[in-house]
Amino acid sequence: MATKLDKVEVVTVGVGWTGGIIAAELAKEGVQVVGLERGKERSTEDFQMVHDEYRYAIRYDLMQDLSKETITFRNNRDERALPMRQLGSFLLGEGLGGAGVHWNGQTWRFLPYDLQIKSMTDEKYGENKLSDDYTLQDWGITYEELEPYFYKYEQTAGIGGEDNPMGAPRSNPYPNPPMMDTPITKRFKNAAKNLNLHPFQMPSANMTENYENPDGQKMYKCQYCGFCERFGCEYGAKASPNMTVIPTAQKTGNFELRTDANVTDILYDGNRATGVRYVDVQSGEEFEQPADIVVLTSYVMNNTRLLLQSGIGEPYDPETGKGVIGKNYCYQILPGATGFFEEEKFNTYMGAGALGASVDDYNGDNFDHSDVDFIHGASVSISQTGQRPINNNTVPSGTPNWGQEFKSQSIKYFHRSLSVGGQGASIPHRENYLSLDPDYKDAYGNPLLRLTYDYTEQDRKLHEYISAKCAEILEEMGADKVESRSVSDHYNIVPYQTTHNTGGVIMGDDPETSAVNNYLQMWDADNLFVVGASAFAHNGGYNPTGTVGALAYRAAEGILKFREEDSQLVQKTRRSQLA
């Protein structure tokens, strides 16, 4: 029997970037917020130890325990989905701060084209550019509307960068200067300019100087140690929720954080959310937390799963194309090429998570797609994140996977190989979606989320095109041998590729084709907001975090507006009843 707690104004499910932003913005306005986080509490002090690649990058110490909760996966509806038993293709974070603790810090704004992709594509190329199997749609918001929220997130996170001539227009410069140029980034930029491209330094949440954000939270200059991705930063030099929005919420006195609180259900009366049910993972006790407003701020897949499990919204049906919960799941494709240099050596072991240079000439609709069989594209970058010895053994194709030759080639090319890669946009397809698994359950007896996903012809054409462009850049950089990446016949859940999953609870201006409005407010429950990359109607050519942050700030504004309007409505109803 669950213990019923006293009602609160707002409860958030997950305390990472989105949960932290919602909590901070509401708490600053005097709203009482309870944040439920299923993982443990942690801070900068937890990472003040020797860098341990094995613990964090190999054994995934900061990631979700798949023995308790995982997903199932299949390529198509004719297959039976099987549980993902080890972390591979993507890394599901867990603990206070979520993936914002162990991210690289590469921070982008999605393009104006991204947000109005359906209407802009139809206008320029006609409605038949892609087949009807691609469930392309606009986001229900324009870039001009979202732009102030992008900047607010960049100020909070201390993003450093420089002008991107092919990127989204900016009303304000970045709060911080870009990261340093290195011999590797300079070589990339020179090659790109020789090819008439427009290179720039990658925007970064790794601090380029000591920084104090508008809420008074301080972060410190990056040491370029090369331990960002999969690691927490012991210097406090990488923007994270734990360094920014969470302490901002806590200092107001209006925010209560509960860790080890795993939410299993949203309580729903058929019209509104009435609260959540959660389990204390330490004691096993179950609680019901009533709330006036419920905000889902967990990871993409968990946002979708909780709605499906709680019976809120119509589940997506690929057979009919109807329903919205689980619809438009998108991943990313990773085209690229690797260059091998016989004589020159590079200090690839040094770096930072967002140290790199990019070109956007092949992203969005920045080039004419009239004569190609795909839309969109990819940001193309060279990253100097810091190669670590266990996870990095780049060797030319044809080298054995073990033995003396593998060892000698690994040693030779550790400092003599560079990769140029693209983050390829993923366009939603009718057969790629999220649903509940009918067979497998988690440690609490609840259905696992089922992922049905495979590459499409759009993916393959885009991958081939961008990989060739990456190879051209490496050839211009002087590589002696260049090998382009190829896409496999089918997507596989291993090995690691990217954690940029999107969709499932998509936004839009039509309840028939979207789950939330442009404040990320559920059409089916006006006091329930679902915040995160689950709202993306498709995936773009960038890391999603900057756009997630912008949408979170807009959602916070929407919650405050709804709270005020709802309060006025309640008062009006009471006056009417008294009369």
TrEMBL record:
Residues 428-552 form the Glucose-methanol-choline oxidoreductase C-terminal domain. Residues 217-329 form the Glucose-methanol-choline oxidoreductase N-terminal domain. It comes from the Bacteria. InterPro entries: FAD/NAD-bd_sf, GMC_OxRdtase_N, GMC_OxRtase_C. Signal peptide: none annotated. Keywords: FAD, Flavoprotein, Oxidoreductase. GO terms for molecular function: flavin adenine dinucleotide binding; oxidoreductase activity, acting on CH-OH group of donors. Belongs to the GMC oxidoreductase family. This is Gluconate 2-dehydrogenase alpha chain. The lineage of its organism: Bacteria, Bacillati, Bacillota, Bacilli, Bacillales.
